[in-house]
Amino acid sequence: MMSDKLTVYTLPGDRSDLWKDALEEECQRAHLARLKSLHAIFDAHDLDLDDLVLIDADEITEPRVMGRNYFIYDEQQVAAVTLDIRRHPGKVGMPLMTDGSIDALCTTIQNFLRISKTVHDVLSKRAEGKVRKGHPGPLPIDKDKELKNFLSGSSGSLPLAGPRSVHQIDEMFARVHARAPWLRHATQRIWKHARGRAAAGVTGYSAPPIMLWGPGGTGKTELSAIIAEEAGCPALEMDAGAGSASFRVTGVESGFSTRQIGEPLRLIAEHGIANPVITINEVEKAMGGVNTAGGLNTSMIAALLPMLEPSTAASFRCPASGLVCDMSRISWMMTGNSISHLPAPFLTRIEVIEVPGLSLKNYFEALDVLCPDDPEMVLALSHFVLDNHSKPEFSLRQIIRVIDRLTPSEEAYLCH
Predict the structure, then answer these.
(1) Rounded Cα distance, 34 and 36, in Å
(2) Alpha carbon 107 to chain centroid distance?
(3) Contact assessment for residue 315 and residue 324, using Cβ atoms and an 8 Å cutoff
(4) Measured between alpha carbons, how far is 194 from 318 in angstroms, rounded to an integer?
(5) How far apart, in whole angstroms, are the C-alpha atoms of residue 176 and residue 163?
(6) Engineering a disulfide at 274: which of 56, 158, 294, 319 sits with its beta carbon 3.0 to 4.6 angstroms away?
(7) Can you tell me the distance from the alpha carbon of 12 to that of 138, in angstroms, rounded to the nearest whole number?
(8) Which helix or strand (DSSP H or E) is residue 280 part of?
(9) How far apart are CA 82 and CA 269, in angstroms?
(10) Which of 183, 354, 325, 215 is nearest to 265 (CA)?
(11) Taking a C-beta distance cutoff of 8 angstroms, is the pair 113, 38 a contact?
(12) Per-residue pLDDT of the chain (416 residues; tens, 9 = 90+)
């Protein structure tokens, strides 16, 4: 039998000191390059820089938040002040604090050498790359203590929720069927997959990526929620048509204005369970997407493909934290109204199950489950279903709305 736990990710030791040392080296290298340019400017005017000013390297290499795109001042500004000194040779050698020209020169030199915030960020990324090359593994998380603290609670071996045997799988799906009998065809298909994995020794609830497709209002999303609840797995619903949908799946890497981990990893970290159930609603709307300036595709379909393949899901790299995560035990449930426009690489990775429109028998099966044990309400709803079930726009949603209207609320009792 396979282990009943799974290590999704492990936080490495803190490498922030390595990054700080590498960043300091990068800043010193940048400072020396600018200093070399500064000496060249003074040499061109037959002036000795060291005779005029004393440069404090520790102070100058500190970045300024406000500045130009690169360094604070450019060569022309330094040359202009230097030329002014050259035109007034009598001022050279006077005490620094009593001569305006020397003061101006000192300020200009400091601004020329000081690193701007923009350049500091570039040097920071360069330092990060060097540390990563010499010490493979996550690094960005070391610089984000809040994110690191959040992930630390679920670092290492995590439990797998759900049945531990074929018998427990059978019991679980008997409960699922009792709660959604009108979806028996889909339930039986999913049950067979879960049963086969349990027979192979896979502990905890496990099923291949599933897509339920068919008319709206048949309970596809509800079935996914029922399965997650009966298995005891954390559940999450995502709307495929939402903006930046791919980033919600994979996360946003360091360097963007907002770094964030993807919602699947966040769900695992929040609950400390390695096998959540994630539902993607209206997946046919995930076809859109554009390439960002950084070359990232915002299509949710593109983001899902590596997650749906067990081999690649087992080594998913979170762009926000740098962690390599095993996401292979996530149970994906997709819903949609059509599969005609979904790409072949997506369809070949999932089990497609058609959920046809509900029949009159199906609606009455749903009534038996959804309707409270109230004879008058049952009678009223039965007439409502008989009168409307053949209408194209009719669905379980209309039945649920009527039940909500007919069910007395707590507020109504409080009024008496």
Answers:
(1) 5
(2) 45
(3) yes
(4) 28
(5) 13
(6) 158
(7) 7
(8) strand 277-281
(9) 59
(10) 325
(11) yes
(12) 456 899 999 887 766 677 788 888 888 888 888 888 878 877 877 777 776 666 665 555 555 543 333 344 455 666 665 665 555 544 433 333 335 566 666 777 777 777 778 888 888 888 877 877 766 555 567 677 888 889 999 999 999 999 999 999 999 999 999 999 999 999 999 999 999 999 999 999 999 999 999 999 999 999 999 999 999 999 999 988 765 667 889 887 755 456 789 999 999 999 999 999 999 999 988 765 544 444 455 688 989 999 999 999 999 988 888 888 999 999 999 999 999 989 999 999 999 999 999 999 999 999 999 998 888 899 999 999 999 999 999 999 999 999 988 887 544 433 33
User: Quick one: DSSP state of residue 291?
Assistant: B
Confirm whether pTM is higher than 0.85. no
CA distance linking residue 252 with residue 239, whole number of Å: 18
Is 397:217 a contact under the CB 8 Å cutoff? yes
Tokens 């999913």 correspond to: 190
